């Protein structure tokens, strides 16, 4: 039934503050008291910001929107882990019951050359959009689709496609990777579409285009460490990177796409 | 505005085609003028918002060859709040052979909306629904399938057929990614220019026609303007006027409200949807509410204990001591009664003292019977991600104890008034998706929001916008309107002034405090049940709060930087004006219908009592200044195909 009431947490926060893209940033330390364990992590940051405003200080900028784990907007490094200590969870779905009274929590933005910091904990992830622009779609104009049931898709394939398509584009995989590689993100989209008959004609150009853009954006190479999978809030499997590699080799060797 | 003065009234025409309802859209398409492919590149369209409506519209208009400027407040168009829709999308495919048809989807939607929507619009929506599924499948949307490879369906509230297509509990995400990918393809093709982290602050009109917008770059703070030949507003709903809602935190009424202040009529703002299955509030820190998909009501049974002083844990309460109030009260629809009906029933039980959980402010949604019948693995396959989300938030395991749920603000049926072509009363300003008022009447059925957003964006606006260009701008297509025009310069200065004013007050209370205070007034007096005295009080309180806001708000930071506090302040300033209109509309609509429940108008067992004699119309309000009584424009509604009758789900 209802969990017994717990007393609030007293916390020390070390938060990255940076006023804009060009400025150099630094950690600032803040104390919070009596934080309810039922709060989400972002609600705890809301409390911090209300305190800062009441003291006449600028609140901490952080990205967030749906606060139910699906939009992919939120995401910070919490004690060195993207989205914090829980598996398969975004920052907004992390709850303060995961922390202990007296804890020190270090909060930083994603760190990657391809994700420049815009302010405090906010980074620019438009590099992900530019990767999708290089083939992460099926080229079908509105109105030219055939009847939906005219092309059956075996359930197993559909489920694999769905599992890969669940990527929320938050960037935790990049933040977790020692090379700041975007392979898990790219593989999720390539794998999603490669399991479906739709867009099959674009298989080769898709994978070559997306990989090429990933490299141009300054993401690092993949060394199959698997940190990305461990950090992913949407449960995207490393297996998709194997699919991506297969698609890439197939496209490189067996097609004449430039 | 004064709460006692009657509004002056004008009559409004929705410009619907006439004749056989199944032929009306065909008729209109024949009447609509076209723009030839080689001329389309001469027209520029601004699309604000990148959810299902905005994303699909921008992509489709780009494919047709128009120049599209697409704006969103998020860091990427893929994050618009459509992404959070869980359960599914309706379409009259009749794949299940259970007697579904365009007509039946139309009928269910009109009835579900409690006879306050436009028949012509709803029939078109039902007709277009099937093309949406085709389009999404072709884009690679991984809808659930049967083992044989054909598409699967499930049932949703307010329907006795299975017509809902779904992708696990992430249907909105997958549909939005489909539209987003189509949009990204057009960016590569050079047909769409993307402006992410831009907020629309004003509409610019030249000679009475919508010709552009003013925006704030949310990274640099720069306020600038953009010119175009049409503006397509796809900026979603206004549920966050209640502070606590299932809407994303960045959802707001600002773009729509600023258009309203420029002359666009705001229709039926009092039609708000309170969703029955949300996770209850856990404390004062609560920043938003989380929906548990309506699809859960396919297998979950809603109940409360029969005895008010029940102390046993739910699993130990025997069947005889449980009240399955939806099944008892609405035997033919049971747990799948529509949202407004289910929400009020939950409130009724809690108000009568049968509620469970802290403060008695929730009811049980129990899966024990479904788990016993189908096995835990089947239930896990269907709803696993929802169950996990529930456990993360509440720290309770719904496989073992029933979920606790309570209604929360979820969707807004009201919005800017549009005609059948989705054009507002301002020529050149089109409004799509949740931002308009058109298709759901006084209550939206589950899985119909996604359908409407995509119908508007993929299959309506591409046809109707061409007509606007061909009729009104054909001779001007080679003249390029510049933002040097005085109308743009004035609008930019006005927006800058408002920004500076917000930063200069330097009072004592935060924006957040004002927003929470407004939300409390709205929820207490303009929420699930409303009455005249409460609404009049709400109007007074909102006016008072608005005055305090402009005297005592404290907004931190500078105008020329990434400043989320300033963004929030601008949105709350608009909510403080809009909330008054919502309450005013609720006061003037002296009847109960759908999500608008006036306590003065109910049956002895708590059902809505409509007043078709006096209120079978759309109430579209014309702005006269903040705090001034708005002018009412009435669009009479006709029900020929679905004759007016008392809605019953018993």
Structural description of this entry:
The complex is a heterodimer of chains A (258) and B (650). Chain A has helices spanning 41-54, 126-133, 155-165, 172-176, 183-194, 203-216, 227-231, 239-254; strands spanning 9-17, 26-35, 77-78, 81-82, 104-108, 117-119, 122-123. Chain A is an alpha+beta fold. Chain A folds into 2 domains: 9-119, Roll (Ubiquitin-like (UB roll)), CATH 3.10.20.30; 125-139 and 152-254, Fumarate Reductase Iron-sulfur Protein, Chain B, domain 2, CATH 1.10.1060. In chain A, the strands form 2 sheets. A 5-stranded mixed beta sheet of chain A has the order 2-1-5-3-4. A two-stranded antiparallel sheet of chain A has the order 6-7. The longest helix of chain A is centred in the last third of the chain and has 16 residues, at 239-254. Chain B has 650 residues and is an alpha/beta fold. In chain B, the strands form 6 sheets. Chain B has a 5-stranded mixed beta sheet. Chain B has a 5-stranded parallel beta sheet with strand order 6-3-2-10-18. The longest helix of chain B is centred in the last third of the chain and has 25 residues, at 449-473. The model of chain B has no long low-confidence stretch (mean pLDDT 95). At the A-B interface, α1, α2 and α3 of A face α3, α5, α6, α11 and α12 of B.
Q: Helix-strand pattern of chain A, N to C? A: EEHEEEEEHHHHHHH
* Rg for CA atoms of chain B: 24 Å
CATH topology descriptor of the largest domain in chain B: FAD/NAD(P)-binding domain
Strand order in the sheet with the most strands of chain B: 1-22-21-11-17
Largest sheet of chain A: 5 strands, mixed
Low-confidence stretches of chain A: 1-5
> Structural class of chain B, please?
alpha/beta
Strand content of chain A is 5-15%
How many helices of chain A does DSSP assign? 8
Number of structural units classed as domains of chain A:
2
Biggest sheet record of chain B: 5 strands, mixed
Tell me, briefly, the overall form of chain B.
globular
Shape of chain A: elongated
Number of strands of chain B: 22
Instruction: Report strand % of chain B.
Output: 15-25%
How many discrete structural domains of chain B? Answer: 3
Q: Termini separation of chain B (Å)?
A: 41 Å
CATH topology name of the largest domain in chain A: Fumarate Reductase Iron-sulfur Protein, Chain B, domain 2
